[in-house]
Specification:
This protein is 29% helix and 13% strand. The protein has 76 residues and is α+β, with helices and mostly antiparallel strands. The chain has one domain (2-74). The radius of gyration is 12 Å and the shape is globular. The two termini are 24 Å apart.
Length: 76
């Protein structure tokens, strides 16, 4: 897969912006929600556990419609 190859080459960054879309891949086109970004990072870490992965929250006021829970699986 192209995503796995990109992860193997180096770390990967995911972005969240106010006008994003959770159907986006999160890198070239940003996500809209923190939950979608968290899940993408977790999935990327599962596919390439030895590679860095960052999530970047872009400027703006991000309002949550639900509680976001981070578990041990979401950490290094």
């Amino acid at each position: 897969m192209a995503i796995a190859a990109a992860l193997a080459a180096s770390g990967v960054d995911f972005y969240m912006v106010l006008n994003g879309d959770d159907a986006n891949p999160g890198a070239a086109k940003a996500f809209a929600s923190l939950i979608r970004a968290r899940d993408a990072v977790c999935s990327a870490k599962f596919r390439a556990p030895n590679h860095d992965c960052e999530f970047l929250l872009r400027e703006g006021v991000h309002r949550l419609s639900e509680t976001v829970v981070f578990s041990l699986a979401d950490s290094d």
